[in-house]
Design brief:
InterPro entries: WD40/YVTN_repeat-like_dom_sf, WD40_repeat_dom_sf, WD40_rpt, WDR86-like. Helix content is about 0%, strand content about 45%. With about 450 residues, it is mainly beta. The chain has one domain: Methylamine Dehydrogenase, Chain H (7 Propeller), CATH 2.130.10.10.
């Protein structure tokens, strides 16, 4: 298969100015790089970038979901485990477990986390949550088709309060959100009687500087995943396709560069999650398969058939490892192959499998819905997971998967972690809940 955009190359930096946009906030500039490069009005881009798949041996504890995912407030500690070889030289889970571990049912509320508040509650189920570290704002998308902007005047206050300052009807059910390079991208599908351009699925894009909007049609059904890297916008949908979109610098609009289906070596089931790095794009589907795509050529270089026994619901990338979660109740750790090559970017067997359990110590039947990474006030990496049918968010310390307790939340369907050491969940009742890590205890002596 040819490369994503027929040979065109993108990249570079932008510089720019702040302004107003029709999502109800002032957009402030910063100096981060954009995955989309420089375009017409040189608006200053923002957003996470995928890490290089080949990391330095002292890589940090930051998690990466690709573009749009915000890093932790706390500075990471150097990592002493990150040597090469099977499992990346890391000891995953409790020792002597043979590559598998079982986490007992949800534990008590963590003593090192304080509950800040609950906001919203208008019964409009939150389906997507995005943190904007540059402006300390939160965006949530909902089942009823609203994009809400939440603002806090002082996130570092003892008891910060989040207010909904904007509520925009998107004319469709919001499936996914991405903020990158001065663009807000909203993956959605038509809820009936809405925007004809979204039938039956599409992406609404708003250029935050100018307020200019356009719709990217084509997906058949839900748009489960959005990501940005290598100068491209990527989307994954219920129709099983991965679509690569290229930005036209003259019009500040995206155009379809490539649509990858099962006939092109893509997925034969709904694409549920996408995670880009500088070298690779990882994708997963409803049948539990994981694929690895080369960012330069656009070719699929590896397929992990049945990487999970059910739907892969979420993936993140952390220190040379792909972490995947599934409705089979497992979290699996995939290490890079000792000698990465076509067909062997990742080891074919997981370096570790963590099996979630219910309160009775039996394998949880509800499955994992969402997952995100955080860093606590002592600079430990912590994984957050929400589970189908549970009223809690579970916390696990990495790489040991030691139980860090649970946060009480009612059927959480969206998770976020980021600025000022805060943790967030969005639930089916439309509630946005917030917690914060307490300051680390000072050493004695």
């Amino acid at each position: 298969m040819d490369n994503w955009d027929g040979g065109r190359g993108y990249g570079g930096r932008g510089g720019g100015r702040g302004g107003r946009n029709n999502f109800g906030r002032s957009y402030n500039n910063n100096n981060s790089r954009s995955s989309f490069g420089t375009y017409q009005d040189s608006y200053q881009p923002r957003g996470g970038r995928g890490n290089n798949y080949q990391h330095d041996s002292r890589s940090n504890n930051n998690f990466d979901r690709g573009s749009g995912h915000n890093g932790s407030y706390y500075q990471p500690r150097p990592d002493s485990y990150n040597s090469r070889g099977r499992g990346g030289g890391r000891t995953w889970g409790p020792r002597n477990t043979g590559g598998r571990g079982r986490g007992r049912g949800p534990g008590p509320e963590p003593e090192d986390i304080e509950f800040l508040g609950i906001y919203g509650g208008d019964k409009d189920a939150i389906t997507a949550l995005l943190l904007d570290a540059a402006t300390s704002q939160i965006y949530t998308g909902s089942k009823e088709g609203f994009l809400r902007t939440w603002r806090c005047s002082n996130p570092t206050a003892p008891k910060p309060v989040w207010e909904c300052v904007s509520k925009v009807d998107m004319d469709g059910v919001v499936d996914s959100l991405l903020l990158e390079g001065g663009f807000m991208c909203v993956g959605m599908h038509n809820k009936g009687g809405g925007n004809p351009a979204l039938q039956p699925g599409g992406i609404k894009v708003c250029h935050l500087e100018s307020g200019k909007q356009h719709v990217l049609p084509g997906h058949q059904g839900q748009v489960h995943a959005l990501a940005a890297a290598g100068g491209m916008l990527f989307s994954g949908g219920q129709d099983g396709s991965i679509r690569a979109w290229r930005l036209d610098p003259g019009t500040a609009c995206f155009a379809l560069a490539k649509s990858i289906t099962a006939q092109d070596g893509g997925h034969a089931a709904a694409v549920t999650t996408l995670v880009p790095t500088d070298r690779f794009l990882f994708s997963a589907d409803f049948h539990g398969n994981i694929k690895v795509w080369d960012m330069q050529s656009g070719q699929c270089v590896q397929t992990l058939d049945k990487g999970h026994g059910s739907v892969v619901t979420d993936m993140i990338f952390w220190q040379n490892h792909l972490i995947s979660a599934s409705l089979d109740s497992n979290v699996r750790i995939w290490a890079e192959a000792e000698k990465p090559a076509p067909g062997a970017v990742l080891d074919r067997e997981p370096a570790y499998t963590h099996v979630a359990q219910d309160a009775q110590g039996k394998p949880a039947t509800g499955g994992i819905l969402k997952m995100t990474g955080a860093v606590d006030s002592a600079n430990n990496a912590v994984l957050l997971t929400s589970h189908n049918g549970e009223h809690a968010v579970r916390l696990w310390e990495l790489p040991s998967f030691a139980d860090r307790g649970q946060l009480r939340a009612s059927d959480p369907r969206a998770l976020g972690a980021g600025f000022a050491g805060m943790l967030f969940s969005g639930d089916m009742q439309g509630n946005l809940k917030a917690w914060r890590w307490k300051p680390a205890a000072m050493p004695v002596g």
